[in-house]
Write a structure and sequence with these properties.
4-stranded antiparallel β-sheet, binds ligand 7TS, 14 helices, about 400 residues, Aspartate Aminotransferase, domain 2, Aspartate Aminotransferase, domain 1, 7-stranded mixed β-sheet
């Protein structure tokens, strides 16, 4: 069990009023708030240690480099990568997935090959593969979703064949809130000689992840969804694959020797990190990794599961409300997308904001999924470690008030 009231004290942003109501922040799938430990680490770095990394011999440069590499070790530990050489700092999940498509895709995908994703992917896990397929003359294939909102494993077995070179799937859907069986998919991919890419944007912040146990070949996630700053994230890759791959960007930091007409690269992980990295961001992300691990990812997962088992039945009981994804609370993470009959989700989100409740509305960067579900858009509430059952109650009350307002014109 976590002490949620104590945790909330660590997040100054939560203590404010929005439209004269105490803020209830339920847009955590888009980005999460930052605890003092992370904010303080960022400020401390800029106040005491700011310098460029891997270049200077002066004391500040040494300190900055030491902290930056210490952060890499914290991120390695968070996902249990075998070594820090396999942990690349990126701008976020999107950058990580693009690097794989560009670099590994260039190496491994040829005309006639296949890349397999699913209908529930975020645009960041669709477009890089569309581009790769178009560039190489390869085919992009989609795994179906069952009517109950789960990834259809029978369809996965049909789509993944000996022609498949890459399988890339979200660990947790940012719309359906379902946890996908990525470990089983990795076995399937490997049986056919394909690599398994996991989009961990919505899993790493909320549950214990072990990339070795999952046998992921690549695993990408974002710092800002796990209490860290924006503009920093991680791409994990197995050493054997990263060694074979070309860097995606070229310039300072990533080179060993530069001649007039050719150059050589540094060893892993630096060969992929061209230019001055987001040093402060990486160091603060290290603090976020420590923060989450001190609380315990299993405890965070359990806390969110408790809220979902409390709020999901209440949502499902509201007349005219549809929840997407699994209806069984034990299979639904804290990401809950929904619609109210006859109301546009943007109107719903605006009305909830009037009550101080922040949710997102739109296509959630998953247009193919919404098309598949035959809805133009949805509202989405997403919970995190600092949310309470009282927040869930405020959501329900605000939805009821919204229904009332649109039916009878007064709140
Ligand atoms: N993959 C998934 C599953 C995501 O949910 C997101 C962001 C990304 C990739 C991209 O992450 P980024 O940090 O590189 O932007 N998802 C959302 C969302 O659901 N609402 O806003 C951003």
């Amino acid at each position: 069990m976590i002490d949620v009231e104590k945790i909330r004290q660590e997040f100054p942003i939560l203590f404010q009023e929005v439209n004269d109501e105490p803020l209830v922040y339920l847009d955590n799938a888009a980005t999460t708030q930052k605890p003092k430990a992370v904010l303080n680490k960022l400020t401390y770095y800029y106040e005491h240690d700011n310098a460029n990394v891997h270049r200077g011999v002066h004391t500040l440069a040494e300190r900055a480099t030491k902290e930056y590499e210490a952060a890499r070790e914290k991120l390695r530990k968070l996902i249990n990568a075998g070594e820090t050489a396999e942990v690349l700092f990126t701008r976020g999940t999107t950058t990580g997935l693009n690097w794989i498509a560009k670099s590994y895709g260039d190496l491994a995908v040829n005309a006639g090959d296949e890349i397999v994703i699913s209908y529930m992917e975020h645009h960041s896990n669709i477009i890089p593969w569309q581009q790769l397929a178009a560039c190489k003359g390869a085919t992009l294939k989609y795994i179906d979703i069952t009517p109950e909102g789960y990834l259809d494993m029978a369809s996965a077995k049909e789509q993944i064949t000996d022609k498949t070179k890459i399988v890339s799937i979200a660990h947790v859907s940012n719309v359906l809130g379902v946890i996908n069986p990525v470990k089983e998919l990795a076995v399937l991919a490997h049986e056919h000689g394909a690599v398994m890419v996991i989009d961990g944007a919505q899993s790493v912040p909320h549950m214990a992840v072990d990339v070795q146990e999952l046998d992921a070949d690549f695993f990408a996630f974002s710092g800002h969804k796990m209490c860290g700053p924006t503009g920093i994230g991680v791409l994990y890759g197995k050493r054997a694959l990263l060694e074979k791959m070309e860097p995606v960007e070229f310039g300072g930091e990533m080179i060993d020797f530069v001649n007039l007409y050719d150059s050589t690269w540094k060893e892993l992980p630096w060969k992929f990190e061209a230019g001055t990295p987001n040093i402060g961001g990486a160091i603060a992300l290290g603090a976020a990794a420590d923060y989450l691990q001190e609380i315990g990812l299993d405890n965070i997962h359990q806390h969110e599961a408790d809220i979902v088992s409390y709020v999901l039945p209440k949502l499902l009981a509201i007349d005219g409300l549809t929840v997407y994804g699994p209806q069984d609370p034990k299979d639904h993470t804290g990401v809950i997308a929904f619609n109210l009959d006859g109301l546009h989700p943007h109107d719903v989100a605006t009305a909830l904001d009037m009550e101080g409740v922040a949710v997102r509305a739109g296509h959630h960067c998953a247009q193919p999924l919404l098309k598949y579900l035959k809805v133009p858009a949805a509202a989405r509430a997403s919970f995190y470690l600092y949310n309470t059952k009282a927040d869930a109650d405020r959501l329900i009350e605000a939805i009821m008030a919204t229904k009332e307002f649109f039916q009878h014109g007064a709140i």
